[in-house]
Amino acid sequence: MVVCPGAASGAISPTASVTAPAAGAAGGTVRAIMLHPDPVLRAVCAPAAALTAAQRRALVADLFATLYHAGGRGLAAPQIGVTRRVLVMDAGWKAGAPSPLAMFDPRIMWRSPLADEAEEMCLSIPGRPVRVRRAAAIRLAFADADGAGREIALDGAAARIAQHELDHLDGVLILDALPAGPGA
């Protein structure tokens, strides 16, 4: 999860409720955020295609409720203990321009050869910002909450958020970008 410096960090109460600032997140339950070194954060997630429509809706609602409650801009399913290839993000809600996006089985179809480096934080690794180099723009293919295939081009903060969350689906953490190597 990419968060702005100063955002809330640490474990989230598994029973709290929240009114989400973006459409589509109402009704979700705020879940506990898994903290490093919980082994679920290193799991390579299973495809989400096997989830039923009801399971998809419930998972997305819980992910968005947890995301907004924690003050983040992206959250991947393993961060709430679900090892499925699902992520949610909302790059604009903190600036008053909500743009919620849920992705099932996302994959990067193209990466810009241009890259930039920026400090990232992760709610699963509270208080430990890490500079990470990422592609400046990407194109993703994914299924939406209804199972329909979609593609989207992202750049700037949205591209960084998506790449950070995609890393979580493969058990990769921002700590792996440190010079000392994986899990430093």
UniProtKB/TrEMBL annotation:
GO terms for biological process: translation. Its cofactor is Fe(2+). It comes from Paracoccus contaminans. This is Peptide deformylase. GO terms for molecular function: metal ion binding; peptide deformylase activity. The active site is at residue 165. Belongs to the polypeptide deformylase family. Its EC number is 3.5.1.88. It comes from the Bacteria. SUPFAM superfamilies: Peptide deformylase (SSF56420). Binds 1 Fe(2+) ion. It catalyses: N-terminal N-formyl-L-methionyl-[peptide] + H2O = N-terminal L-methionyl-[peptide] + formate. Keywords: Hydrolase, Iron, Metal-binding, Protein biosynthesis. Pfam families: Pep_deformylase (PF01327). InterPro entries: Peptide_deformylase (IPR023635), Peptide_deformylase_sf (IPR036821). Removes the formyl group from the N-terminal Met of newly synthesized proteins. Requires at least a dipeptide for an efficient rate of reaction. N-terminal L-methionine is a prerequisite for activity but the enzyme has broad specificity at other positions. The keyword Protein biosynthesis applies. Fe cation binds at residues 122, 164, 168.
